[in-house]
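Comment thread on ticket #2218

A.B. wrote:
> Attaching the input chain for the structure job we discussed in standup.
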Amino acid sequence: MHMVSRPGQPPWQEFLEAYRKWAKPKSDARPSPSRRNVEIWSTYNKSLMARPSTALGRLARLAFVLLIAVLIVWGILYLTFDHVLHAAHDALRSRPTPAADYSEALARFGKMEEEDGPEISTACRSILLTHGQGTEKAVVLFHGYTNCPQQFRELGQMLYEQGYNVLIPRLPRHGLADRKVENLSPLTAEELRECADMSVDIACGLGRKVYVAGLSAGGTLAAWIAQNRSDVTRVVLIAPALGLTRHEGTRLQKGIALLLLVLPDMHKDWYDADPKAQGYAYPGFSTRALAQILRFSMATFAEAFDHAPRVQEVVLITSKSDEAVSDFLAWQLIGLWRSKGLFKFAAVDFPKAMEIDHDMIDPGHKNQQTEIVYPVIVSLLSAP
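C.D. wrote:
> Ran it. Output below, let me know if you need it in another format.
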């Protein structure tokens, strides 16, 4: 560093100017190592990020396309089920032909008994308990899915002793002595409709007032009767099987019902390892038959969206310990009915601490508490 002094210029200023000239980079000077490192790192970083971002973009586009495809397929299935449901709506409408008197009711029950051929278990035949004449009150009790009339025999006897004429019909495809689960598979919603109508028709000749109660799938029939039969005084829905999932509404139930209809029939055995299982109930269920029960339920909802229930007195009995059916849908149906002027409604929801299971009727069911449940049902049926 060479310093050139100017006249009158202080020595320290001469030194500062000389240092500035020396430190100023030449025009062809290369960037400092630190700057070059920054540029190199920036270029490397950009190239590194470009590759995964391209891969992520492709994955995002693929996921979007798959999502659209799933939504389209689900929409087609949903619309298809709506079409199937409305096409079957006429087949699931009530066709009432009530018995005119007690003798005609007995004759019609005779025809119902004829359907209980030798293939039906003796414990599972339709039950009729009468006082030898028409009474003030007659009650129809519908058993649950996979069970049979034996499930309600004890409760039916209690009601009989209180003056009711009692009818406990066998649901279609149930009660066979050969308890193979696949025997349930041919069940149809139309058969359930016919069973519901026939049972109410008979009861109309057994008593001046007709009451109906049903558990699970029997509750599905009872709900359909509440929607369609004006000749019934009161309906009691006991844990009705209106849907499978506990907290979802009708849209998901429609999709589930359609899938179960089109998928291959699947069988589920519950009691293989249970030596205490009832000897008259099926040891499991058929998904194809379950789909028909849900189809019957959806037909009730389809009618409820447009019309008030024909029965104006409804009772709902549920349990917080019940994980088998959707109480959400039961309350949704009640909401539809109440919005259209349901006159009288009562509800009992057993708390979880009581541990009352879905099958709260069959005395042979493990953990049964009929000493609690039966008096509740009897009082709700008989209440003014």
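A.B. wrote:
> Thanks. Noting for the ticket: The domain at 90-382 is CATH 3.40.50.1820 (Rossmann fold).
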